[in-house]
Amino acid sequence: MNKIILLSTWLFISSLHPSAIERKFPDFQQTTLDGIGINQEKLKGKDSFVAIGFLGCGAHMFLLKDLETFADSLDTTHQQIVVFLENTPDQVEAFFQEEKNMWSDFRKQYKIKSAPYLIVPDCEEETLETKDGITYVGRQCRKLSKKLRTKSSPTFYHVNAEGRIVQSSKGYWALLPKQERLKKLNDFLAGIPGGSAP
Q1: What is the DSSP string of 170-198?
Q2: Can you tell me the distance from the alpha carbon of 170 to that of 160, in angstroms, rounded to the nearest whole number?
Q3: What Å distances lie between residue 7 and 13, 15, 17, 157, CA to CA?
Q4: Which residues contact 57 (CB under 8 A, 6 or more apart)?
């Protein structure tokens, strides 16, 4: 009997995503698309839905579209949505422009109308130097993903008001019909106090 209980407990624990065990959201210092400095303290005091991914990833595009459905129903006094995009600020700005370009074509293809959430580009250009003294401009991307040890796009998290990750999910249900995707996203948001469909 004890072996059966231990086995079922082990199976339950091993089925949890590693970040389902509560841990502190990593420190970061970045700038929002609006030019405002942001760090991990922004995730304290409110329950946060934090998504990380890159523009052009189909699954992430579906997530951004589906988040439009829930953003208006959030109690912004106690809840927030923060989206880190593994793209440069120029790419993110081009994504939201009306004029035709590669990035705005992605937005229009997925019928994303707006971004009713905080957007943080997670890719910056910087001057780098090789061992031989040759300088070049490179991109430093995925800084936050590396700290969170995820390569999946998207990955999303419930970060509680104390700034701790209490729930996470890798990937998105892009192949499911819209209503099923919204139900699964609603189920995840239901874990965030007050967060669920309108």
Answers
A1: ES--TTS-HHHHHHHHHHHHHTSTT-S--
A2: 18
A3: 10, 12, 18, 28
A4: 153, 154
Query: Amino acid identity of 42?
Result: K
Q: At residue 8, does pLDDT exceed 50? A: no
Better-predicted residue by pLDDT, 8 or 75: 75
User: What's the confidence (pLDDT) of residue 112?
Assistant: 92
User: CA 89 to CA 103: how far, in whole Å?
Assistant: 12
pLDDT at 110 over 80: yes
131 vs 78: CA distance, rounded Å? 49
pTM: 0.79
Token pair 């419930």 is found at 158
State the Cα–Cα distance between residues 86 and 19, nearest whole angstrom. Answer: 21
Report H helices in 16-127.
58-71, 89-95, 102-109
Q: Smallest Cα–Cα separation from 154: which of 51, 81, 20?
A: 51
Q: Is the dihedral of CA 45, 47, 53, 55 positive or negative?
A: negative
